[in-house]
Amino acid sequence: MERLMRYKTLQCFLAALIMIVFLAPAAYASGTPDAYEASANAVSEKYIGKTVPGACVVISEHDNSVFAKGYGLADLENNTAIDPETTVFEWGSISKTFVWVSVMQLVEDRKIDLETDIRTYLPDGFLKNLRFAEPVTLLHLMNHTAGFEEELLDLRYYSASEEIPFKEVLSAHQPKQVYPPGSVSAYSNYGAALAALIVEEASGQSYKDYIKEHILLPLGMTHTSVGPFWMDVDGLLDHKAKGYSYTGKGFRREDEMHLRMYPAGAMNGTAADLLLFAEWLAKAPGEETRLFKSPETKERLFKETWCSYGANAGLSHGFWQYANHPGILGHEGGTYGFKTQFWVEPEAERAILILTNVMETDYCSAIMEAVIEQDARPPKQEVGSRDFSMLFGDYLPARSAWSYAGKIQARMQIIQISKEGEENLRLKTPLSDKDLLYEPVGEYQFYCAEAIPEERSLAFSVSDGRVTSMTFRLAHDYVPAGPLNGFAGSFLSLGSYILLTVLWLAILIVLGSKIVCKRSSFQWQRIILPICGLILGAAGIVGMLHWFSLYTIISTELNIVAGIGIAAAICGFFTGISHAVKRKTRVSVLTIILFALQIIAAWMLGFLTVV
């Protein structure tokens, strides 16, 4: 009898175990420390020391750190190892999650309403470039759907001697509103920083003081800095990792990122400190959290507020959902020498942190793909239309500068969509090696099993027979480029701009050599136009190379380039016209036509735009 009872007990135990294994939600499956370490080690072996100098991976479950490990070096020159407890990283755009938590705290205190026009909270006349009648709300800022173009002007401080008041920073260069609010998701640092200014206005405190009083101190985050210069925490810089980029030939040290719009991406701290923030956000639904007075506020924070058509991830009040897992929320951060990811999963009370000291995304994505169980392909739906011709063409990130020289940066991210076979689409990036094949799974929705999780879904929003936006990756939508802004138009304008500059230089060298050798007399009318063309081209090329090296456009320099270009264009054009009328030769007419083409190219590239 005793043996029979033991046998039945064993049967019940096995049945219960089978039910737990097969009925537990796959999306929220937790791992073991050994499994986490094996996954992180396998990925790290492929990247650390090769394209990533150092990294830190931390995983917590139920408020307990079950895996924390540093890989590689924080400082290549001094051979300093990564330490999850003490190494300080730049968190980049993870800083935005502190803005969104602050906003929700003030919503809880009834000092802010997410659906109210943000001009209610800002000084009168503060926003100068709003173009559409629909009001911009805080929810638009959280969803990155306020409609702002990308802001690349004066992003960084180059001297720690003086910090410009935050309100002045946001007032000085305001991006134009290029989309109606709520129509397109265009990731915006300016929008997030604007939300932080609203936190200041509604709370009556500086943003730095608010974050310290309402988030850092209550959570015990004593190794975290909020501002742009990171001097508010004693000893923090002594433990900071050096930031690098990988060039293909090795690692290059990058300058530290002192962001003027600091709430959007300037926080620095240890992985251990960031874990404190993550664990309170990862509390199970209904549990108390030090971040909010009521558990319901966190529940509201993590409810979906935006999802682009056909996307496999949406937004929840500024927090991104992980691909195919709406219950996993977080954010990615990237500065000029660091890349980080931060995810929380309340249903499993799990937090995942990945921090690196390099401008490289693949490592973070590979760690997440190894740790999170991936869903299978979406079920194939009935496809209504087989005519995909309207989908073909070039697409630009909605997160683009459209009105000044910063547009060149967006042109480097062009995506080309073309037909492949009867009903498949091919996605290519002409300036990189991305080449993916997608098959239809729904109405203007496509899927690629070979892509990384963030890129497996591709979808097109179509209205009145034309594409209004394309969904790809997270962070922002893509919009049709048009012939002038597409790859061919961009290549033609930039190529002609550079080639004509070289042509004017060659003409001046030839004319100069003839004059020196006394084979030709000096005629100022012949050299003015080539000189103007050389100045027009050289100013933009030098400026462009300088700004790419800095990862930002300095507004005063752009205005100087534009001023020089406008003066050279006017002088050269009228001198050329005068010379062509006087000489009436084919060469003089051809010269003025080529100069006019250079002026058009400079205008298309934004080198004649004053900001």
Topology (elements, then pairings):
Elements: H1 2-23, H2 33-47, E1 54-61, E2 64-75, E3 80-81, E4 88-90, H3 95-108, H4 138-143, H5 166-172, H6 189-203, H7 207-219, E5 224-225, E6 244-246, E7 251-253, E8 268-270, H8 271-281, H9 295-301, E9 315-316, E10 319-322, E11 325-334, E12 339-345, E13 350-356, H10 362-371, E14 393-397, H11 407-411, E15 415-420, E16 424-428, E17 435-442, E18 445-447, E19 457-463, E20 466-471, E21 478-480, H12 482-485, H13 487-516, H14 524-550, H15 555-583, H16 586-605
Antiparallel strand pairs: 1-2, 1-13, 2-3, 4-8, 5-8, 6-7, 9-10, 10-11, 11-12, 12-13, 14-15, 14-21, 15-16, 16-17, 17-18, 18-19, 19-20
| Rg | 28 Å
Average of the residue pLDDT scores: 90
Low-confidence stretches: 1-29
Largest sheet descriptor:
8 strands, antiparallel
Provide a compact summary of the structure:
This protein is of the alpha+beta class and 611 residues long.
Keywords, separated by commas or semicolons:
611 residues, alpha+beta, 8-stranded antiparallel beta sheet, 16 helices, 21 strands, globular
